[in-house]
């Protein structure tokens, strides 16, 4: 450990999020708005239903003269899309189908199961009450009603709502632009054949996917060699091209080839912090270069991903103007005992399942090495252990963060 205490995860997150707000907005066709974040309220431009309509197939009647045993004269038909324009008088009924407009004068629906038809007469087998099976005009919403508040991510259900309300265009947040740069002489791009001592770079792929899933727009800046000028040039390019965030991986630690901080410092970065009291991810760095936030993540794929999950995802949400920025902590039962934790907050990879009573159970993966992508991909949660937490027996309550939450 270092001489001075390192920042806690929550303090570091507060610094990363400081001053982060929406980066802009644009109007998009509602059909292309899935997953986008609303920046203006979605208000109804129409009333729905726009007219009183029937919820069932049967007869539009006046409840007052449609009591059990009554006989009514059928004067016409109203079906969805085909309005019967004549008003309905006492002793009359109109054949109606689901979605059909109620004729003037009708106030209830006699369902056909409770009616006996004979030529132009219909007998009421079971009397009706006023309003029965009638959908009032504006039952769902009225023109001008605010239906979705800003700051929410548009779900498939909301896309349908936007369509129904006559909102051909919706105003959504511009996607924050995130550049993702890997550093390391040992890295080759996916698909290339690694030579001895080389490995395939996976961080760009995982982090770009994570950014996109969180609602941002990722640009893969590829791999920079462990060379100060090369890294400087890539950082400069990200700043000059107006990226909102630059994420680097690798070169964050204390080795002779760990050049991220010096490269960014040489470009004029204001360093906010370097190193935090967490595992994995201790060597994480955060700073600003002009208007661009810069997250320097460790190279180990698991460390990079856990840091991105904890810091980059909330940052993207903040830059989208989302109302809910933070991950949700849940409680679960530990499947096995865990030894005492040290001074670093620990994010233990594991699986969250539910027992036969629906109780959530968190099972830590057996191996926690921060290079192990397979364990990470197999995990669906992080078990969060406080700094200096004592030993935890099997069955005790622990805190978990799901890795699948993209609401
Ligand atoms: N003497 C010390 N050594 C290390 C410390 C320390 O405090 N003192 N910290 C360790 C911790 S914790 C971590 S985490 C790593 C992070 O180091 P770097 O950020 O400098 O990462 P690299 O050394 O560049 O790479 C680490 C590891 O990850 C592989 N890697 C890098 N980039 C990618 C990529 N894009 N895709 C897949 N894999 C990647 C790389 O080959 C290395 O194996 O430092 C410890 N050391
Ligand atoms: O922090 Mo490192 O991320 O322990 O592997």
UniProtKB/TrEMBL annotation:
<comment type="similarity">
    <text>Belongs to the MoeA family.</text>
</comment>
<dbReference type="Pfam" id="PF00994">
    <property type="entry name" value="MoCF_biosynth"/>
</dbReference>
<dbReference type="InterPro" id="IPR008284">
    <property type="entry name" value="MoCF_biosynth_CS"/>
</dbReference>
<comment type="pathway">
    <text>Cofactor biosynthesis; molybdopterin biosynthesis.</text>
</comment>
<protein>
    <recommendedName>
        <fullName>Molybdopterin molybdenumtransferase</fullName>
        <ecNumber>2.10.1.1</ecNumber>
    </recommendedName>
</protein>
<dbReference type="InterPro" id="IPR005110">
    <property type="entry name" value="MoeA_linker/N"/>
</dbReference>
<dbReference type="InterPro" id="IPR005111">
    <property type="entry name" value="MoeA_C_domain_IV"/>
</dbReference>
<dbReference type="Pfam" id="PF03454">
    <property type="entry name" value="MoeA_C"/>
</dbReference>
<keyword id="KW-0808">Transferase</keyword>
<dbReference type="InterPro" id="IPR001453">
    <property type="entry name" value="MoaB/Mog_dom"/>
</dbReference>
<comment type="function">
    <text>Catalyzes the insertion of molybdate into adenylated molybdopterin with the concomitant release of AMP.</text>
</comment>
<dbReference type="InterPro" id="IPR036425">
    <property type="entry name" value="MoaB/Mog-like_dom_sf"/>
</dbReference>
<dbReference type="InterPro" id="IPR038987">
    <property type="entry name" value="MoeA-like"/>
</dbReference>
<keyword id="KW-0479">Metal-binding</keyword>
<keyword id="KW-0460">Magnesium</keyword>
<dbReference type="InterPro" id="IPR036688">
    <property type="entry name" value="MoeA_C_domain_IV_sf"/>
</dbReference>
<dbReference type="InterPro" id="IPR036135">
    <property type="entry name" value="MoeA_linker/N_sf"/>
</dbReference>
<keyword id="KW-0501">Molybdenum cofactor biosynthesis</keyword>
<keyword id="KW-0500">Molybdenum</keyword>
<feature type="domain" description="MoaB/Mog">
    <location>
        <begin position="179"/>
        <end position="318"/>
    </location>
</feature>
<dbReference type="Pfam" id="PF03453">
    <property type="entry name" value="MoeA_N"/>
</dbReference>
């Amino acid at each position: 450990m270092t001489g001075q205490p390192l920042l806690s995860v929550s303090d570091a997150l507060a610094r990363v999020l400081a001053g982060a707000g929406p980066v802009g907005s644009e109007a998009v066709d509602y059909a292309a708005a899935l997953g986008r974040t609303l920046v203006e309220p979605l208000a109804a431009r129409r009333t729905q239903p726009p007219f009183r309509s029937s919820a069932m197939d049967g007869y539009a009647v006046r409840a007052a003269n449609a009591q059990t045993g009554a006989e009514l004269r059928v004067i016409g038909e109203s079906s969805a899309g085909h309005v019967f324009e004549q008003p309905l008088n006492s002793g009359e009924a109109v054949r109606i189908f689901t979605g059909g407009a109620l004729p003037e004068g009708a106030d209830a629906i006699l369902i056909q199961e409770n009616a006996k038809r004979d030529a132009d007469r219909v007998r009421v087998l079971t009397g009706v009450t006023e309003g029965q099976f009638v959908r009032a005009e504006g039952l769902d919403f009225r023109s001008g009603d605010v239906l979705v508040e800003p700051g929410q991510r548009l779900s498939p259900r909301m896309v349908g709502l936007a369509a129904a309300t006559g909102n051909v265009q919706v105003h959504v947040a511009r996607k924050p632009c995130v550049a993702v740069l890997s550093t390391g002489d040992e890295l080759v791009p996916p698909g290339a054949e690694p030579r001895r001592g080389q490995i395939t770079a996976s961080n760009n792929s995982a982090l770009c996917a994570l950014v996109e899933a969180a609602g941002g727009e990722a640009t893969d800046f590829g791999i920079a060699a462990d060379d100060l000028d090369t890294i400087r040039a890539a950082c400069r390019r990200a700043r000059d091209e107006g990226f909102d965030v630059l994420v680097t991986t690798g070169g964050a630690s204390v080795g002779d080839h760990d050049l991220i901080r010096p490269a960014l410092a040489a470009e004029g970065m204001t360093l906010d912090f370097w190193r935090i009291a967490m595992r994995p991810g201790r060597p994480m760095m955060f700073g600003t270069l002009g208007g661009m936030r810069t997250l320097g993540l460790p190279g180990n794929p698991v460390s990079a991903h856990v840091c991105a999950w904890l810091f980059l995802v909330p940052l993207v949400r903040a830059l989208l103007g989302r109302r809910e920025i933070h991950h949700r902590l849940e409680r679960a039962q530990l499947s096995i005992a865990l030894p005492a934790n040290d001074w670093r907050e620990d994010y233990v990879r594991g699986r969250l399942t539910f027992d036969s009573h629906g109780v959530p159970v968190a099972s830590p993966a057996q191996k926690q090495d921060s290079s192990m992508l397979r364990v990470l991909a197999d995990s669906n949660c992080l078990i969060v252990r406080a700094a200096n937490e004592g030993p935890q027996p099997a069955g005790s309550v622990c805190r978990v963060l799901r890795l699948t939450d993209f609401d």
